[in-house]
Amino acid sequence: MKSNKQKRLELEVKRQRREKKKAVAYGTVPVNPLALCPDNSYGAPLFVTRGFYVDQPFSCRDCGKQEIWTATQQKWWYEVAKGEVWTSAIRCRACRRRERERQTEARRVHLEGVAKQQQARQTLTDAHHTAREHQREGTWKLTTPHGSTTPRKRP
Ligand SMILES: [Zn+2]
């Protein structure tokens, strides 16, 4: 026959176990340290020593909006995208998208510029070859182009 005290103690242990389970299930995701991006610095970030990710509120660096970086998003960032373990979310969803679009656009403009340069260089090279062929054949001579670069006549 169990004493009331013992029964109460067992109930309390069960309750704590239930609470713990609930706490782990809600807003937390276990960390898989083997999947993390290798890190050479001393010590480990809190989520590694703790063993699980926790929903993390933060304010957006760009617009100041409060948002939650969820445990699931963190797991994805560190273990799938291999984000460095000391990095964390700094922009809200909207600003992140805007930033991504800005970067994509900047890259597009840059690549377009590179392509144009290459094209220009190719055109110059072609013109140069043509000029040399003409010169060799004596059919055409390189002359000063007319326009702004033409030397002005003295008055
Ligand atoms: Zn924002």
If you had to describe this structure to a student in words, what would you say it looks like?
This protein has 155 residues and is mainly α. It has helices at residues 4-25, 46-50, 71-80, 93-137; strands at 28-30, 52-54, 56-59, 66-69. The strands form two sheets. The chain has a two-stranded antiparallel sheet. The chain has a two-stranded antiparallel sheet with strand order 3-4. A hairpin with a 6-residue loop joins strand 3 (56-59) and strand 4 (66-69). The protein is rod-shaped and about 120 Å long. It starts with a helix and ends in an 18-residue tail after the last helix. The protein binds zinc ion (ZN). Zinc ion (ZN) binds next to helix 4.
Please provide a brief summary of the model.
With 155 residues, the protein is mostly helical. It has helices at residues 4-25, 46-50, 71-80, 93-137; strands spanning 28-30, 52-54, 56-59, 66-69. Strand 3 (56-59) and strand 4 form a beta hairpin.
What Rg is obtained from the alpha carbons, in whole angstroms? 34 Å
Distinct compounds present: zinc ion
* Spatial order of strands in the largest sheet: 1-2
The average pLDDT score comes to 86
Largest sheet: 2 strands, antiparallel
Uncertain residue ranges: none
Distance between the termini: 126 Å
Strand content: 5-15%
SSE sequence, one letter per element: HEHEEEHH
Share of helix, binned: 40-55%
Number of strands: 4
Secondary-structure class: mainly alpha
Principal-axis shape: rod-shaped
Q: How many DSSP helices?
A: 4
